[in-house]
Write a structure and sequence with these properties.
Rossmann fold, 6-stranded mixed β-sheet, 4-stranded mixed β-sheet, 12 strands, 25% strand
Length: 220
């Protein structure tokens, strides 16, 4: 199975998962605002995708000429992501890790509001160990220019763990669910970021369980 993207044929493998098919062909969370944001970013910049899922946005950024690092803790989605990267010989680094406020916490994935999110907890249930934005940047000598963050509920925790890194980035697209992240917008403002209310309103969910949720594009 394949999809054409930016004039290139991207091989999705012989048996991509149902989730991968739904995301790659735009049937689930197409997020045109995220695509437009990625397409506005300059080639040669460093892009981190935290909560990369099956890689639809990370691969776009890679094909646009960015240096991409993708993080996805959900093992099945991570396999879909790495399959696409390997089949198409993309220069895109992938890590099966979970971000949180504090590095080194054992935990596992549990259901968030809509999909999986990292939940700290003691062994033997722990299958992952957390990292943080600041810890990863320090130990890998890398700071992103641009950051996409969508982890189904731990966004505020991740912001808390990036107080050194976040002031250095140029723009961030973050999914904000007011139920689980009521303080996130204020936290980003304190770090020197702004956003366009019209942009947020245009993509905000207006009814149902996720009413008020939107992708905020923060910039300086």
């Amino acid at each position: 199975m394949h999809i054409d993207l930016y004039g290139q044929r991207i091989d999705l493998g012989e048996n991509p998962s149902y989730l991968a098919v739904q995301r790659w062909f735009g049937h689930l969370s197409p997020e045109p605002e995220t695509v437009a944001w990625i397409e506005s970013l300059p080639a040669g910049s460093h892009f981190w995708d935290i909560g990369a899922s099956v890689g639809t946005h990370a691969v776009r950024a890679c094909l646009r000429g960015m240096y991409v690092t993708a993080f996805e803790p959900h093992e099945p989605s991570f396999r879909d992501l790495t399959t696409v990267v390997e089949l198409n010989k993309l220069v895109l680094r992938c890590y099966n890790v979970a971000f949180y406020a504090i590095p080194g916490l054992p935990g596992a994935l549990g259901r968030g509001r809509s999909k999986y999110t990292f939940i700290p907890g003691a062994a033997p249930s722990a299958t992952l160990v957390s990292t943080s934005l600041d810890y990863w940047a320090e130990h890998n000598s890398e700071v992103p220019d641009f950051l996409k963050l969508d982890v189904d509920g731990n966004e505020e925790k991740i912001i808390l763990g990036g107080q050194k890194v976040l002031p250095l980035i140029k723009s961030a697209l973050i999914e904000v669910d007011p139920v689980v992240s009521p303080n996130l917008v204020g936290m980003m403002r304190e770090l020197g970021f702004r956003y366009d209310p019209a942009q947020v309103k245009a993509c905000m969910i207006t009814e149902g369980k996720y009413k008020g949720t939107a992708n905020y594009i923060f910039y300086k």
